[in-house]
Structures are given as structure tokens and as C-alpha cells.
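Running low. Any example?
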Amino acid sequence: MWVLLRKEFFSFFNSLIAFLVIGSFLVMTGLLMWVFPETSVLEYGYADMDTLFSLAPYLFIFLIPGITMRSFAEEKKSGTLELLITRPLTDAQVVLSKFLAAWLLVTASLAPTLVYYASLYMLGDPPGNIDTPGVAGSYIGLLLLASVFCASGVLASLLSANQIIAFVLAAFFCFFLFSGFDSLAALVQWSEASLRLKQLGLLYHYEAMGRGVIDSRDVVYMISLTALLLLSARTILSSRTW
């Protein structure tokens, strides 16, 4: 499994996908945090990273499907998926390797943003005047959110041999899981079901973690959703209906 994971991870760099994803993410977040006056922390006047953590999920909705769309779609189109599943690996190990390779790439794209935290830490008045627990909670929430999006992308890639269709499906899954339930809750906002609908969505749990309080229920929810999506992908792969 680790051989396949290493192969999948470094294949991103061989095809320049890693550089495009990391570069695009850093350029967009850098412009939004430091340049554009509507979202610039320098214009806002407070040492916080709300701009990054509020906009990063929407960037991930498009960037992560771009990473995962080739996971299985390319294998099926080139005919190498049949060869892959004959290796001494279980279907779960194949799915998990694809998922972890994509998630590690997303994690690598997030790592340089720690420079933003260090900069704001020094720019605070006095230095260090920044909500560190809130930042830590938001980073944990963003990594867990990325795991759900990566699992959604892997599942979408199994559903189609066309990478464009896999990208569109993954973007739809990510968008709906993140804000779809919140939008549905707005339709029944005077009903008792409104809060229940919000709790089914990722946005509710992500925002809760961004407040710096890591509730085990939020963590369990995101991990369970990731596991459910990966289990669905393994089931499809095992069915050999692709």
C-alpha cells in the first residue's frame, strides 16, 4: 500500500498538478489576504485569519476535484485499473492510497500559509495579539474538511471514466456537503428541522471548530463522513461494475 501511496503522491509532481494546485492556492489566498482591499487583513485592521479560513473551503471546492479527478478516471480510460487490482492489494488499500495521496498534497498546499500566521503574530499590537486557539482549530477543521472533499473526489472519479465529468461530480458533491444543507435549512428556518438540517452539513461543524473549541462531535462527524465516502468508493470498486 505504501508503495502505491508514494507512487500516487509523486505522480502529482511529475505531471505538474502539485505545482499548479499549490501555486494557485497560495496566489489566490495571498491576494485575498494581503492585496484586495475588500478582504485584506491590512485594511481590516485586526490580526486574524478569518479571510483565509472563510474563503479556503470555496477554493478547495474547485482545487481538490482538480486533484482527484484523475485518481480512477485516468486508470479506467487507459485500461490500467484492471492491472492495478490484480496486484496483491485489497480494494480498500487501493482506495485509501488514492485518497491519502490527494489529502497529503492538500496538506502540503496549506503548510506555507503558516507564514501568514507568523506575519500576523508579529504585526499584532502588541506582538502576539492573535487568537491562536481559533487559528489552530480552523486549521484542524480545514484539514478535516479537505479529507471529506478528497474522499468525495475519489468517489466521483470512480463513477466516471471521463475526467471532466469526474471533476464536475466532485465539485457538486463538495459544494452540496459544505453548504447545501445550510441552504436547505434556510428554506425551513422557522421549523424545528432547520437546526437539524444545518447539523447535517459540513459548514456547521467547520464554523464550530473555527471558534477554537474542538468538540469531539465535530471531529467524529467529519471523520465518519470521510469513512462513509471511502467505503462507498471501495464498494463500487469491489462491485467491478465500472
